[in-house]
Amino acid sequence: MKIAIAKDGSSVSGHFGHCEGFALYSGENGTVRHEGDLVNGQGHGAAVSILVAQGVTHILSGGMGQRARDMLEEQGIASILGVQGSLDQAASDFFSGKIVDDAPLCTHSGCAETDDDSAGSCTCSCHQKN
Fold first, then answer.
1. What distance in Å separates the CA atoms of residue 35 and residue 110, rounded to the nearest whole number?
2. Least enclosed by CB within 10 Å: which of 18, 24, 77, 109?
3. What is the β-pairing status of strands 2-8 and 58-61?
């Protein structure tokens, strides 16, 4: 199984659509291995294409909008939201079964930006860093 974690620096990104890239991890027989990093593409479609090309089965992120989740699900990639902290710890926790999808989708309610592709000057909680 191969997962991708939306990243900003060495931490899990607060929002899939605005992350700087993705850290790839694989896990087998209790061993978690960092497979490398990918730069985020322009827009959700590019990001999803990058993840599909790498054989990713799950994406971990702090938050995500419905459109992004739908695009990922159409490609067979499960999204797990509400993840925070360091990339390595998140990967380890995922492969040991300690992470569950426990965050609501970003709705951008009360936000002037309703398009997940551009946060602009948005101040809603889903566009804030963890």
1. 38
2. 109
3. parallel
Give dist(CA 11, CA 4) in Å, integer: 13
**Rounded CA separation 25/88 (Å):** 9
CA atoms within 13 A on the CB side of 57: 7
Burial 92-128 (b: 16+ CB within 10 A, else e): ebbbeeebeeebeebebeebeeeebeebeebebebbe
Q: Which domains does the chain have, with CATH numbers?
A: 2-127 (3.30.420.130)
Measured distance CA(19)–CA(30) in Å, rounded:
28
pLDDT in tens, 72-99: 999 999 999 989 999 999 999 999 999 8
| pLDDT score recorded for residue 109 | 55
